[in-house]
Structure formats: structure tokens, C-alpha cells
Amino acid sequence: MITAHISEKGQITLPVRARKMLGIKPGSRVEIEVRYDELAIKPLKSISEVAGVFKEYAKGKTSDWEEIRKLTERAVSMEIADE
Q1: 1-53 confidence digits (pLDDT tens)
Q2: Backbone angles phi, psi at 43, to 5 degrees
Q3: How many domains is the chain partitioned into structurally?
Q4: Residues 71, 56: one domain?
Q5: Who's near 57: CB < 8 A, 6+ residues apart?
Q6: Domain range holding 51?
């Protein structure tokens, strides 16, 4: 278990070990979810971090982001339907 302290301003510093485990770096954005009597902190990926995933669906077809989005939505929908 990893513990941290809350400052007088209500701020928390995420311990290095936790940040490394989750890939949280300076400038990263996180999502905080309140679950009854606990908090869940999840790192958010920027579009640049996941852009490669989207480009895979449109590989060799286009470099237009709107078209890539459409192709990705179509491909993901088909994958979900196959499951």
C-alpha cells in the first residue's frame, strides 16, 4: 500500500512509486472519481499519446484526422460487433 499526506490546502502529492506505476509525469492530467468512501485516480491519455492507435485503422488510406476518426469509429464498431 502507498500512503500520502494531505497539505493544509487540501493538496496531495502522489508518491514517486505510484506515479511511475501509472505513468503519470509532470503536466499529466488525471481523472478523480469519488467512490463512496474512497478516491480513484486514473491517468488520462492525451490524443497525441493514443494517435498511433487511431492511425493504425486508417493506415495508408488518409492523413486527414476527421477521416481517420470516421475510419476508426467504423473499425472499432465492427470489432465490437464481432465479439
Answers
A1: 889 999 999 999 999 999 999 889 888 889 999 999 999 999 887 655 666 66
A2: -70, 145
A3: 2
A4: yes
A5: 68, 71, 72, 75, 76
A6: 47-82
Per the confidence metrics, is the pTM higher than 0.70?
no
pLDDT tens digits, one per residue of 59-69: 666 667 777 77
Let me know whether 31 and 9 are in one domain: yes
Which three three-digit cell numbers place residue 83? 465479439
What are the phi and psi torsion angles at 24 (to 5°)?
A: -90, 125
Q: Are residues 2 and 34 in the same domain?
A: yes
CA 48 from centroid of its chain's CA atoms: 11
For residues 40 and 2, state if they share a domain. Answer: yes
Q: Which three cell numbers stand for residue 50?
A: 493514443
Give buried/exposed letters for 54-65 (b at 16+ CB in 10 A, else e): bbebbeeeeeee
* d(C-alpha 11, C-alpha 73), whole Å: 38
Question: Which position has the grid cell 494531505?
Answer: 6
Three cell numbers, residue 9:
490546502
